[in-house]
Amino acid sequence: MESTPLPETLRRLDALIQQGGLARSEFLDIRRLAVRTALPEDVVDTLLRGGQPPAETVNERVRSRIKALADDRLTRTGQRMSDLAGAISRQLGVSAFWARQVCAGDKVPSVELLHGLVDFFGVEGGEAFFTASADEALDRELRSLLAARSTPEGRAVVPSASPGRDDVRGLALRQARDLPEQRWNVLNATLKALLELDDQEGDR
Predict the structure, then answer these.
(1) What pTM value is reported for the model?
(2) What domain of life (predicted)?
C-alpha cells in the first residue's frame, strides 16, 4: 500500500492542537469529518488514531460514498428516497429506478454519470471524492481544515484561552460555514452583544 501525506498532516494538526492547548476531540470532530468525507465514522476514527482502514475496491468506495451522501441528504432534508431519486433523474437525465439503485449503494455509475453526481451533491475534489482511498479522502479534508486555521503567511491560527475581539470574530467566521442557521443566529447575536459591551466599556 502506497504511503499518503496523512501522517504528516496529522502531525501538523497535533502541533496546532498542542499550540492552542486544545483537546484533540474538540478540534477533530469525527462525525463532522465523516459527513464531509462520506466515510464511516469508525473508519475516520481508525485513521485519526494512525490505523489502517479495511481494504476495499474502487467500486466499493464509489457505492458506499454515494450512499453516505444520499443518506445524509435524506436525513438533513427529510426527503424520501423517491424525491431524491427523482431530482437526480431530472438533473442527470437517467431513470428514477437507476438513481434509486445508485443512492442505495447497489449500482456503480459510469464515469460520465459520476461526474454528474459530483455536481448534484456539490462535493469538492471532482470524481476523486468518490474514488480516492479512505486515507487520501481524510487527508484532503484535514488539509482544508489546516488551511482554514492558517494565516496567509502560513502561521497557525488557534483560539487562545482568553480571545480578544479579533480572535473571536475570526474564529466565528472560519467556522460559520458548518453552523446550522439557527446556531449561527444565536452565535451572531451573542458576539454582537459582547462587542457592543466592549465598546461601551471603552467609551467610559
Answers:
(1) 0.69
(2) Bacteria
